């Protein structure tokens, strides 16, 4: 019989969330507590497999005694703190952030952002067309994935996933400053000339679709991409004996992309090039 260690139990903290007493495990963030309580706090740059970067600032909330709004994704819950998530100040801040982001980049493939823009009555168009941060064609320099930086919000998640938090390849980083800041490989070379190992872990964490499977990009361009018609099946990768879990996204009886469960203890959402992109042989009908 296999004995699974339970580990050291975490102490529960008590604090106030929107006037209601709540309890959360020690070490939890305010965002963790909000989700456990069923409160919908928007966020773009937060990822459950990465250390919070506090980049997008959409998840800000009010904490009693704090001079400024605090990012819920990284602020740890503390005993006795009083948190308010839906105040006029927090809502106004989210509205401005959404307006600035949506006016400067293309958020058309960002999940839920149109819902939040409507909820907070944001009006990105008021900044005019000159607010656009970039205006360039998608980079299609390999057969596996596409980089469309017109959709990039500079959340740094891809840099962290490629760097010391997961892959340790360090193929990409932030180049430039201000409006010229962008994600790039060394010397802005083609991806095929970079240190990229095509694990696709940057695609896994990208919240806006700035990085996407070539298959998804082509289907969106053709108007055939339909997530509601896709099924997801989780299986085990057959390439080696590590035991990575794969989630196959299937549309019209064809695998259109592969992800990995973030709660899997082997992969934590990460894969290698074979697991992420090596699925073509499955649907070879010849």
From TrEMBL:
Domain 2Fe-2S ferredoxin-type spans what residues? Answer: 11-89
Spell out the CDD domains in the cross-references.
fer2
**Nucleotide-binding is among the record's keywords:** no
**Molecular function GO labels:** 4 iron, 4 sulfur cluster binding; metal ion binding; oxidoreductase activity
Q: Which residues form the 4Fe-4S Mo/W bis-MGD-type domain?
A: 230-286
Residues annotated as domain 4Fe-4S ferredoxin-type = 142-162, 188-216
User: Keyword annotations for this protein?
Assistant: 4Fe-4S, Iron, Iron-sulfur, Metal-binding, Repeat
Protein name listed in UniProt = 4Fe-4S dicluster domain-containing protein
Q: Which organism is it from?
A: Streptomyces spongiae
